Each structure stands twice: as C-alpha cells, then as structure tokens.
Amino acid sequence: MRYILYFVFVSLLASCASRKDVIYFQKNQQVLDSAFSIDFVKIKPMDRLMINVSGPDEDAIAPFRVSSTQSGGGGGNNIILYTVDQGGNVVLPYLGTVKVAGKTRLQAVENIREILKRYVNDPIVDIKINNFQVTVLGQTGAQIIKFTDTDRPTILDAIATVGDLSITAKRNDILVVREEGGKRHSYRLDIRDAAIMNSPAYYLAQNDIIYVEPNTTGIQANRRPWYLSLGMTVIGAGLTIYNLFNLN
Hints:
The protein is an alpha+beta fold. Helices cover about 25% and strands about 20% of the residues. It is built from five helices and ten strands, in the order αβαβββαβββαβββα. The chain has a five-stranded mixed beta sheet with strand order 7-6-10-8-9, with helices on one face. Strands 2-1-5 form a three-stranded antiparallel beta sheet, with helices on one face. The chain has a two-stranded antiparallel sheet with strand order 3-4. A hairpin with a 2-residue loop joins β8 (about 175-180) and β9 (about 185-190). It is elongated, with a radius of gyration of 28 Å.
C-alpha cells in the first residue's frame, strides 16, 4: 500500500509546473527600466470610426454632424459610425472627404479640428475606432476582445482581459498571427522574458490572433481522467483490503 501511495504522489509532483515556468518578466529585467518607443494604433481602410463633433455654439456646429434623426437613432446621441473607404478617407457632413488612414486617433482628431476651425470657434472632436478587436484562443478559452478606450493595447492587456493565464498555460511560446500589407506574419512571445516589450507583437494590431498553448501540466490534465479514476479505484481497493486484514 505504501508503494501505491508513493507512486501516486510522485506522478502528481511530476505534473506540477515549476516556478520558472510561470513567473512573468524573470529574464532581462533591465528592459523594464529602459527607454522605449510607443506604437500607437493607426487607422486603416475599412475601419469603422465613431466620430463626435461638438462645440460651444450648437447652432454653428450643427451643419458639420449627422443628427440622431438622420442616422435613424434616438435621443441626443450624435456619435455616428463612419467607414474608412479603400482610399483611406471618411466623408463628413459639409467638410466632405477627409484623409484619416495612416494616422493615429489623436492625429485624426487634430486634423479634423483644424479643418473645423475654419468655420467655427473651439470645435471639439472625439474619435474612437469601433472595430478594433483581437481574437484569443487556446488555454484561455475562445474570446474576442474589443479595444475602444486605448490607443496602444498590448499583449498584456489582452491577457489581463481574459483573466490572466492559468497555471496550465504555456507562457514561453505564445503565438500572435498578424495581417500586414496583404501578408500574414507570426510572432512567438515568451512573457517570462521582459524583452517581449521590444517585440513588434507587444503592441497589438487590429484583428491579431493570439493562441496560448497548454503546457505539460495542461496536457496531462486533459489526459488525466481515465488513469486518475483507475488510480483512485486501485487505491480504494488497496485501502479496503488493507483494512480487512488489519481490523484487529
């Protein structure tokens, strides 16, 4: 009986992830204190933008926006979705065609503000990219994450949004698949290494696919039910026999 229990204990111990497999940023920690450049999200053709135009003079600003009645909406919400065409432009009321592709959200805001200032005083412009999303698959479960409130979402933002990685997730080989210029590119990230902050895939791009593989513990966990049940049966039978012969 002693040997059976020892075998089960060793098997469970072997399946456990070690500390070095799960700690974030354990390598190259000097990167955490180094200079870096921020890669802001750029607007692209076929993006859908929420554009809100306002100002202190409602009558003066009114011609430059689509009303909720014209857009089929209700109430006083003036946030309308504009699709960026293949040429990288949106068509705004009265202003006509405005180039936005290749610009960050803040650059597009400032560009539209400067155009509006030709006609009205102190215009206020707000833009959000409505369709910026990434897909997360694998050990985290399948989720589509939308980012509309940040100009630079990172792989860590995506991981935090899904509730962090479980102990059974493989941290040293996270796959990011990205479409750029009509081509697909793949990146492998090790979030145990702070050097991922210098990776092109650290800042996410629209429609990125993130795949998190199971580690050895996760794979064994998926295989465990049949032999774990058998092991428990053997242990139960062994305990029963042991007790029968040791009643006195």
